[in-house]
Amino acid sequence: MLKTSPLYSEHLKLGAKIGSFAGWQVPLFYTSILAEHKHCRKKAALFDISHMGELVFQGDIKASGIEKAVTPCLEEIPLGRSRYGFILNQAGGVVDDLLVFKIKSDQLLFVVNASSEAIDYKILKEIISQGELKNISAQTAKIDLQGPLAKEILKRVLSFSRDISYFSFVEFGFKEEKILISRTGYTGELGYEIFLPNRLAPFIWRQFIACDKVKPAGFGARDILRLEMGYNLAGNELTDTITPLQAGLAKFINFKKDFIGKSALLEQKDKGVEKTQVAFVAESRKIPRPGYKIYSAGKRIGKVTSGTYSPLLSAGIGIGYIGAKYKKSNYPIYLEDNKQNKFEVQIVDLPFYKKGSIKGSGLKLVT
Q: In whole angstroms, what is the distance from residue 275 CA to residue 242 CA?
């Protein structure tokens, strides 16, 4: 059976179109995908991301051996900060990507993908030699407020006025409960990810929705927003046969420490990658779909992993993998759909959308 978040009834009340994702029933859209996308870019959108997994480690980080499970150096993360990284297999392939939050010197919060939650927990549990690992996913809801007005809306709704720098977080007391507010997101806009107990989620959701500058947004808009920024999606751009080096994410690997898959990555680093990630814009409104073949000079050189229509570029955009030598050559490429229709695309640098408010202070809320 598909899982539902503690906000499921709220989505039904708002008339959401429900679909499935990673074993969950989730809102795809409420009014229209494009309208929700625009509202996030211009004002602020509210997302239910309660499907994500949360794992808490308590204990001596160095003595536990948990460092070996992930690519960022856990001991080096400052208190109140988070870092992005990976759990890898022995071949260097991505089992999952994640965020790690340093709650205390001996307490970490791992935020993982729903599709990999169980296997991530198993890997961490088997690696640690001491300390305690708890899976609190079933008790934890997650609401994301994203958009250039997010800071002012957060202040208005939760009376939360503290400044939080990018990739920082604070724990905040609310109605005798503790919630965690993180300055992170998946849209390219100024935003906050709010982790809270299930019982508080409906109340806080309704408080945000009551604000006239906020609109709920579903997974359809979220996918366009993340792809316009060139953010990778687990299961598409990141799989157990794709390494972070092939995905162009070497900066999230700390090679000074030991971790599962390190030797494979060092070998790949030495020899060079055979395939590499590439981003492209279609010379039309045609959408590149996952699985479409990528060609150059009549030769198949790769495939599309994600694609959508970008309202901001008025064109189809996508990400895929091609042979590394073809990216270096700057040869023109084209795509072939499932009906063998061909259309031209142009390789571009990421992000597709470069005007997001993600690292800014946002706009002032006009009342």
A: 9
Q: How many CA atoms lie within 13 A of 168 on its CB side?
A: 10
Residue 121 CA to residue 73 CA, distance in Å, equals 19
Give the DSSP letter string of 68-97: GGSSS-TTTSPTTBEEEEEEE-TTS-EEEE
CB 154 within 8 A of CB 191: no
Residue owning tokens 């460092």: 67
Beta bridge partners of residue 162, listed in sequence order:
none
Burial class of 160 by CB neighbour count within 10 A (0 to 12, 13 to 18, 19+): middle
Which residues contact residue 173 at a Cβ distance below 8 angstroms, ignoring those fewer than 6 apart?
A: none
Per-residue model confidence (pLDDT) at position 2: 97
Q: Which residues pair with 96 in a beta bridge?
A: 87
Assign domain 8-50+138-228 to its CATH architecture. 2-Layer Sandwich (3.30)
Which residue ranges make up each domain of the chain? 8-50+138-228
314 φ/ψ sector (left φ>0, alpha ψ -120 to 50, else beta):
left
Q: Which residue stretches of the chain have pLDDT < 70? A: 329, 366-367
Q: Residue 46 and residue 278: Cα distance in Å, rounded?
A: 30
* 307 close to 290: Cβ distance less than 8 angstroms: yes
Query: Distance between CA atoms of 356 and 186, rounded to whole angstroms?
Result: 11
Helix (H) and strand (E) counts in the chain: 9, 19
Q: Give all strands (DSSP E) within 183-269, no chain letters.
A: 191-197, 214-216
**Strand 191-197 to strand 214-216: parallel, antiparallel, or no bridges (unpaired)?**
unpaired
Q: Say what the alpha-carbon torsion angle 41, 224, 220, 49 is, to the nearest 10 degrees.
A: -70
CA atoms within 13 A on the CB side of 78: 7
| Cα distance between residue 350 and residue 60, in whole Å | 39
Match 């959408």 to its residue by tokens.
287
Here the tokens at position 169 are: 């977080």
Burial class (CB in 10 A: 0-12, 13-18, 19+), 212: exposed
Strands across the sheet containing 132-135: 82-88, 94-104, 107-112, 53-58, 132-135
* Per-residue pLDDT, 366: 63
